[in-house]
Amino acid sequence: MVGRLVGLSVAALLASTAVPLAAETPDREQIVSIVKEQRDATIEDLREWIALPTIAAEKLNTPAGAEYMKQLALDAGFQQAKIIPTDGVPAVFATLDAGAETTLGLYFMYDVKQFDPSEWDAPPLEGRLVEREGEGLTIVGRGAVNQKGPEMALLAAIKAIQASGKKLPVNLVLVAEGEEEVASTHFDQVVAVPEVRDALAKTVGVFIPSAAQSKDGSANITLGAKGAVEFQLVVGGETSDKYPKTDIHSSNHARIENPAWRLVKALDTLVADDGHTPAIDGWFENVRPLTERQKELIAEGAALNPEEEAKALLGVGRWIDDEPYVTSLERFLSQPTVNIQGLIAGYTGPGGKTVLPGRAEAKLEFRLVPAMTKDEAVSKLKAHLAKRGFDDVQVTVSGGYGPNETDEDSVLIRAQKALFDEKGIPYSIRPRNAGSWPGVIFNGPPLNLPASQFGLSRGGGAHAPNEWFLIESSDPKVNGLDEAIMAYVDYLYVVAEEAAEVSD
Amino acid sequence: MVGRLVGLSVAALLASTAVPLAAETPDREQIVSIVKEQRDATIEDLREWIALPTIAAEKLNTPAGAEYMKQLALDAGFQQAKIIPTDGVPAVFATLDAGAETTLGLYFMYDVKQFDPSEWDAPPLEGRLVEREGEGLTIVGRGAVNQKGPEMALLAAIKAIQASGKKLPVNLVLVAEGEEEVASTHFDQVVAVPEVRDALAKTVGVFIPSAAQSKDGSANITLGAKGAVEFQLVVGGETSDKYPKTDIHSSNHARIENPAWRLVKALDTLVADDGHTPAIDGWFENVRPLTERQKELIAEGAALNPEEEAKALLGVGRWIDDEPYVTSLERFLSQPTVNIQGLIAGYTGPGGKTVLPGRAEAKLEFRLVPAMTKDEAVSKLKAHLAKRGFDDVQVTVSGGYGPNETDEDSVLIRAQKALFDEKGIPYSIRPRNAGSWPGVIFNGPPLNLPASQFGLSRGGGAHAPNEWFLIESSDPKVNGLDEAIMAYVDYLYVVAEEAAEVSD
């Protein structure tokens, strides 16, 4: 996921008695027994899934991964599951009709990030069980926490309820994509398929299973995320015959234009002289200011996360404009950004080399806040450059999506609060994540659905070597696999109950 | 050499009768016989020198190369030769007192450019004799033409005159440096040594042996060169605690400054919005416009070098501002530049990656024209950035030197003209080379000496694989090694004669 596990640590730990207790899951002890009996099989299922990595950037196991995902859904009791082709990697659409009043949407990703086995202590595709200091028994492998582990736990929950002889308390609509790690490039095509769209439209919202329990056992609820759009600006012999096609001797700059200067001139117009405020024409038109409730949550979160720790973690001594901590956190969550991810042109080795580059490239990214959209931001960028005559600066949008935002009073979020309260799990509410995930696909038009993440247990190392997911926690406050599965079981019941209350 | 063999091909072929013929070299046939007898030994000497590459950037054979250079001078009949230590690679200073009226300065470089043997067809340190299509028999090796071949030819000329029983017609002062390929970083320290400075001050000028005969047999005379100063601008965690020390997750740009933006803002101030006119405060103060004579030479040169060929060679379709060819050539030779050699920051692989870079670097270079100086340009840059508050932008000057310019009526140049006339070799006069060499060390204060290049024969592949120097030419219009040696013999006599005429 594009940065979802990184970034904001604003947490507002709420008293666990604010919301009335939800009803018990029926025959819960029986289901707990089934989950325990099935544990070895569940772990084995996860290991087998980890052994088949789908990597969109490398076109690795893309049809095979989709077929596997489809079979996982069918094995979990979905009555129908089908491959949805896209212009990129295919997706999977599945439904489970339990004859329930309420329908819940599930978003899965079946792809994983690239990995280099030489950097791993355990083979990245083995799913080896490894004792982790201070955590407990973990499963190590690419995709363990991002996102196969939590997803497999949810599938195990669905199976366990059925194995107890009951129907699920909610109907399920599952969409699983294979391009999450390349910014969900074609995911809009999946939800545009009428059958998929119509099925999703009946849900109370869509969530992705996750494993975001903190080390102290607390959980968090996130009410949205910024959007992210990645693009590259290129100038050089490939965009205009003013520039050479390859690097040439630098003395020629006296008579030949340098594409690196042109890139600098174009970039310079995109942010103000302060070096951070976006200066693209019309950029702030649809930026919605923070609400009082959002500011309240930010202030509460700030109190729980010491400023000096945050600075040390990020390796900086100051926030933008030397702002105080809470102001910088408000900026962090409220401001859309134009970021330079990277620059590359000409000679990049030690010291200097007398060349005039044939090509200059800047890698950039927007972070968008409600109510900006991806199309709006890209159109404004292109119009901005065109207005200033930068027709030799090529814009390539490599992926991205807009922001998402889900109401605190939606069934999805009410159910999370109720469940944490019932279990006595302290939790924080993040008004928004500064990182991004493609929830806008569900959250934006035409579906306009609540979109969220939910899941207990813990993991780490997403996008890094030695990715892990907790199986048996050494700390009773933190959930292991069995408890994470049971949390999904309970969540399905609480969602059904909250939805019934809303519709009453 | 920093771009001396690349760049301008402005040539003004002059009628070969414009200057009165110089006197014959005495007993020339005897010296020719000696050169021929010594040829195998000369080639062997060159091969042995090539086998010992001195590479300043890699600190390879730096003391050994200086010792070897010193011994080469002593073997050639210099009465004294000594190592001159510097803060970098040591230089060599040698003198040959022939009891002559006139003293001539010689500038050698004993270092060579880096090489990668895997890119070569013949081993780069073997000095293998290879037949080259359309050229003749060549010696192939790193340093063959840049600059050991021409230098060894000059040493062979000095030996041959002495072997014929005569004293040289001129006294010689040799300075040889081992850091030419890293922009002569410490060469000013060498000529600042009183003994070296005083010896050079007695010369009529200093020249470096070269091999710049064209394929059609014509030669050229260059009356100067632009200066070149290389520097790097760096912004990041190492320059201010506003920036992170390493790349961090890009979502943080909403609250943390991005050093790449700061670099863009600083760079943007260095050139005008046209993307090429330097905008550093006071930049043009000491820029001397072209003289009518220089413009005349440029126009004559343009007529000899078709515009479309020049564009094709450089891979461009247009000159700056769509200027006509002669205007672009005047710009090429008259305009000082601020060039971006390279940019590097953050993520530089395919597509994008959600990082905020911890460091951003631009590699830049000035090209300077008379009467600008290196110190002036660097001071103006630093003052320009300081005035605009860019105290977090670190400037590192990695090397360089100012421009040089030698009068057409100096002994060095008059002797070249006389010699080419005598031999019936057509020649062009380049008013200035847009590339650079450290002639300013001699040409600037306190020495203020004429500084030039001279040498017949041909070679190629400087700084590239399969570097070569011609030994036996397949074309009678082009000189091979024997003739190149004799051209140096003749040149020493013509210099003595021209100097006598001037002092009469």
UniProtKB/TrEMBL annotation, chains A, B:
What's this protein's name? Answer: Acetylornithine deacetylase/Succinyl-diaminopimelate desuccinylase
The signal peptide annotation in the UniProt record is 1-22
Asked if Transferase is a keyword of the record, the answer is no
Q: Which Pfam family would be a valid example here?
A: M20_dimer
- Domain called Peptidase M20 dimerisation: residue spans: 246-389
Species of the source? Altererythrobacter xiamenensis
Q: Where on the tree of life does the source sit, at the highest rank?
A: Bacteria
Which biological processes are named by the entry's GO terms?
proteolysis
Query: What keyword terms does UniProt attach to this protein?
Result: Hydrolase, Metal-binding, Protease, Signal
Q: Is tRNA processing one of the keywords? A: no
GO MF assignments: metal ion binding; peptidase activity
